[in-house]
Design brief:
Elements (H helix, E strand, L loop, with lengths): L11 H6 L2 H11 L2 E4 L7 E4 L2 H9 L4 E2 L28 H9 L5 H6 L1 H16 L4 E2 H6 L1 H11 L6 H13 L3 H24 L5 H7 L1 E2 L2 E2 L2 H32 L1 H9 L4 H12 L4 E6 L3 E3 L2 E3 L4 E5 H4 L34 H17 L2 E5 L4 E2 L8 E3 L1 E6 L3
Parallel strand pairs: 2-10
Antiparallel strand pairs: 1-2, 3-7, 4-14, 5-6, 7-10, 8-9, 11-14, 12-13
Helix pairs in contact: 6-8, 6-16, 8-12, 9-10, 10-11, 10-12, 11-12, 12-13, 12-14, 12-16, 14-16
The structure holds protoporphyrin IX containing FE.
């Protein structure tokens, strides 16, 4: 047996300066249901193999979402969204909440937004070309997802820039206090907006939540605000990081960019590979609702079980040559968007946003090069570039 590396997957620095794949590879091969009791977090089981994660994902009766889906320090108490937001509820409540918002995320609804997304992509690439260099994360990748989710939520256009600044601070600022205050400002913003929408509903997501009736009851203002925050975060964070992580992968594997440039019909398959490769949602947690045994390890009710999605998506028993970035990969049944009951609500939207952005970059006849060292996020929740300095120039200039 290969000697075990030191296993500590909850060290945020591992994702900014280390290589978590060394640990994941070893765990998949040697200890696929691994117990870890870190100092700063409650103990948890790790699932690292694709089939184990997929099987657990399918079994929402054993693996509950209602106590939170991310590891959090015990002294932070219970997750305030537990039992209240779409992501943090189990059926039947989960299906009722999903029913309030899912029509906004169908193929048809997403298609109706594509012209606008294309316009945003064009403007964003144009702005980047006008500068000597820019940060791909904040100035290119962040804009389409944020503007689109703002529009879907019925946020007045005059506030988009304000929310753009707030979300950038809430997720990317180096100072935890600034991040926290920005989050509070976002909640405060939705507190006002949901009141306005309840009084004068429009054709948008916040109005849908503010007027929803489930089992004869309206959602409480807090439930509406928490769900709005969930949608804004869900709608922006992962897509932004995935687009930037995808661009970084193309810069590191220029032959893959050339393949795509020669045949843009490969874009949908390239987007799947970008999703698999970047697997930006690093961990997703569940809490066991009943005992279960996996590979001889007994998981007890109340135990936390963590799915490491980037590990599942590099499982060598499922993906040929998994550490190769390959826009032609087929099949590519990755788990980057989750699976089962809580499969990403915005999956169509995310794929469309990624496709349109890369399409614009391929079509606008620009050359893209690194203009500095990329910086990776120091987080156990999302992984990928925190900043990616690039220079865009007209092709061949
Ligand atoms: C590349 C981009 C994206 C990635 C990698 C991603 C990833 C995920 C994952 C892994 C889950 C499953 C969570 C779980 O199992 O508990 C999820 C759920 C969710 N995602 Fe996404 N997501 C992306 C884009 C989006 C977008 C654009 C939206 C738009 C609002 C969105 C909204 C949501 C929501 C609301 C849920 C909870 C669904 C539920 O619990 O039923 N996501 N996402």
């Amino acid at each position: 047996m290969e000697p075990p590396p030191l296993i500590n997957l909850v060290d945020p620095e591992l994702y900014s300066h280390g290589d978590p794949f060394v640990q994941w590879r070893w765990l998949r091969a040697n200890d696929p249901v691994h117990w870890h009791e870190p100092a700063e977090l409650p103990g948890y089981w790790s699932l690292t193999r694709y089939e184990d994660v997929r099987t657990a994902y399918r079994d929402h009766e054993t693996f509950s979402s209602a106590h939170g889906i991310l590891l959090r320090p015990a002294d932070h108490g219970v997750d305030p969204g537990g039992g209240r937001t779409l992501a943090l509820t189990d059926p039947p409540r989960h299906r009722q909440l999903r029913g309030v918002v899912d029509e906004w995320f169908t193929v048809r609804s997403v298609r109706a937004l594509e012209e606008e997304m294309r316009d945003i992509a064009r403007a964003v690439v144009g702005d980047a070309l006008a500068q000597e260099s820019c940060d791909f994360v904040t100035e290119i990748a962040a804009r389409i997802p944020l503007y689109v989710i703002c529009k879907m939520m019925g946020i007045p256009e005059s506030d988009w820039q304000y929310l753009y600044d707030l979300t950038s601070k809430a997720f990317a600022d180096g100072d935890p206090l600034t991040r926290r205050f920005a989050h509070l400002d976002i909640m405060g913003y939705f507190e006002n907006l949901q009141e306005e929408k309840a009084a004068d509903p429009g054709d948008d997501l916040v109005s849908a939540l503010a007027t929803a009736v489930i089992d004869g009851d309206r959602l409480s203002p807090d439930d509406i605000i928490l769900n709005c925050d969930n949608l804004l975060v869900g709608g922006t964070e992962n897509t932004r990081i995935s687009a930037a992580g995808g661009m970084l992968a193309f810069l590191q594997h220029p032959e893959q960019w050339d393949i795509l440039r020669a045949d843009p019909s490969l874009l949908p398959s390239a987007v799947e590979e970008v999703l698999r490769w970047t697997s930006t949602a690093t961990h997703i947690m569940r809490t066991a609702a009943r005992p279960i045994e996996i590979h001889g390890k007994r998981i007890e009710p109340g135990d936390r079980v963590v799915f490491w999605l980037p590990s599942a998506n590099r499982d060598e028993t499922v993906f040929d040559d998994p550490d190769r970035f390959d826009v032609l990969r087929k099949p590519n049944r990755h788990l980057a968007l989750g699976f089962g009951e809580h499969f990403c609500l915005g999956s169509m939207l995310a794929k469309s946003e990624l496709r349109l952005l890369f399409d614009e970059l391929l079509n606008s006849r620009v050359d893209i090069e690194l203009a500095g060292e990329p910086k990776l996020l120091e987080s156990i929740v999302v992984n990928g570039p925190e900043s990616l300095p690039v220079r865009l120039t007209p092709r061949g200039a």
